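Final report, results section. Input specification for complex C-07:
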Amino acid sequence: MSTKLADTEDSASPDGFVCRESTTLYEQPNPLVLESGQTLGPITVAYQTYGTLSPRKDNAIFVCHALTGDAHVAGRHNSEEKKPGWWNEFIGPGKAIDTNRYFVICANVLGGCQGTTGPSSLNPETGKPYGPDFPFITIRDIVNVHNALIDHLGIEQILAVIGGSLGGMQVLEWAVSHADRVRSAIVLASGPKLNAQGIAFNAIGRRAIYSDPLFQDGWYYDADEKPHFGLALARMVAHITYLSEESIELKFGRKLQDGDELGFNLRAETEFQIESYLHYQGKQFVGRFDANSYLALTRALDYFDLSEAYGSLAEAFSRTESRFLVVSYSSDWLYPTAQSKDIVRALIETKRHVTFRELESPYGHDAFLIDQELPKLERLVAPFLARMYMDQRQGRSS
Amino acid sequence: MSTKLADTEDSASPDGFVCRESTTLYEQPNPLVLESGQTLGPITVAYQTYGTLSPRKDNAIFVCHALTGDAHVAGRHNSEEKKPGWWNEFIGPGKAIDTNRYFVICANVLGGCQGTTGPSSLNPETGKPYGPDFPFITIRDIVNVHNALIDHLGIEQILAVIGGSLGGMQVLEWAVSHADRVRSAIVLASGPKLNAQGIAFNAIGRRAIYSDPLFQDGWYYDADEKPHFGLALARMVAHITYLSEESIELKFGRKLQDGDELGFNLRAETEFQIESYLHYQGKQFVGRFDANSYLALTRALDYFDLSEAYGSLAEAFSRTESRFLVVSYSSDWLYPTAQSKDIVRALIETKRHVTFRELESPYGHDAFLIDQELPKLERLVAPFLARMYMDQRQGRSS
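Structure output:
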């Protein structure tokens, strides 16, 4: 379960290699009862761990990934792997989340397509992928499955749950519905509910998928061609919302993709660099993501609303026992700072311990994933974790 | 050419009825030479006029419409018409642009689909719609055609050219490339170029159209079914950019379309009101707009860049002879105030007469089209026009 040390030859990979692990939970006759009332089981959960669980089992940090992320949060699986995990600069020995000190767990979400049971997994009743028969899932369902994984790993208390965007919503849900085991909650670039604009952009993405004739009502797994046009288009529009106007203006502006003369050709779809970049993002995405998962997870995002679920935000947070660190980014227009402030106000109202910072960044919503922005985040997260860990060892309550 | 008075019975229509008019220009052998170097002719221009041209011909105001607008800027064509023109609350007797005083002209843009020659018009060489054979057009081409219309109407000087968004870009192009006839220029919710984010959203819209199998490379005019899925999707995504986060949050928030219970049904595409609203917007749009026009006009938007075209913004404005009124809206994120300020700074640098105001509004980019926001705009535009008109009559130069 712990990270293997790198071969001594592999000097380029000082963090060592990481293993894909998985476990199957909710075997019949004990399926998961979903928020919708439907049941689902068995459920396979794909996860990865880093560092070593302390003898007291008091150093576990659970990382919640965002919409299209996965369990591969840091390190490499082998020396051939081109890219390390998605938060490699933030998690590892001596890094912001120091795996010499903490035991880090990251798991793929329910409904995803990177190892945890989702629409592309085999339905044991039919022997074929669930496809559109996959039940409707919510963020609470996602968190319940991860909570069962923590049970499975024999861990009682989690030192910290951390995540950004959809991951931040999972953190909030963890803190509210599994309050007794969450010592601290770190919510990045997120909000207590998806606002109308967010629902609108998700609706566009889903419409793009539904409109693709290759989607075939979701029964495309046996087909030679998948609904890649629709899925790519969904990714392209979502990707714009992850960037700030400032950052794409700085990076691309009106630069042309080829040469420096306008082509006056309406058939040229990628004349400007920003267009070419979006097309590339779309193409890359369809190689690693499943359209039905995209539908399911964006709907889970839409449905998230802590105040609706618990009567009010204060009502929700009155259940929590964690300390909170809430971080927003100045140029994030998908989850603007005002949404983080809504969280913070409700936490203060319920007399919870909360630290809040808006970080200045030109990078928009994705800032928490961008390497050059991580040092700022580290300066908040590392001391917060260290303090939590020290206070916990000294038996101080939150 | 002037507005007909209403029948006395028609008390609901005090503005009188307005006529659709059109004229054909650039007859062979004198076609329009486009910015691309291609030629196009003949070109039919659809337009409407309001009020009466003064004997001195010094009271003409030209209105430039936005991306999907048309010449029908105010009034009704007949008593059956449900909705009046798109700026009916702003233009008419006693209104902000007072047709008792001014002679107002609005014309559909080149490349459009509301009467002026565009991709859906018959190509005289083939007897079929131009379709994708329609030449590539730019905002300068659009303005050149309207400039020829003004010639045709026997008008030399235009008291004011006014428009928002794509209309505002036309106003800028008017002021720069037809400086000798534009006395004043009123630029609303616009910018001197389209930024990368704007290009990105346009690219998404075009991708949606290109991806629709019914698009058939643009040769869909004879088909029973048009690429309505793609065009509707393009409209949906664009529509989000016209609204502010605040305004859709206030209007829709997370309200459900039917009942007050979440359905937990992934097949329900319009569960939230904002989704239903966007789908409605998409559906309405495909009934009145042509996909090839949408492609052509969004590309014309992308191409607009005054500083690129003239070396610098100051270089461009050094050609102008107008007074300027520049107005931005606080919650407009498609053409943020910073873009209007770029215009204003360059005008000041070139010692032009410019008035600038950022209007506070929650309605985003579309604010200049929203009835309840028009009184604020009227308080800027009406005195600006009155002053222009008075100074012109008194022979004062700009």
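The longest strand of chain A covers residues 43-50. Chain A touches chain B through 58 residues (CB under 8 Å). This concludes the modelling results for the funded period.
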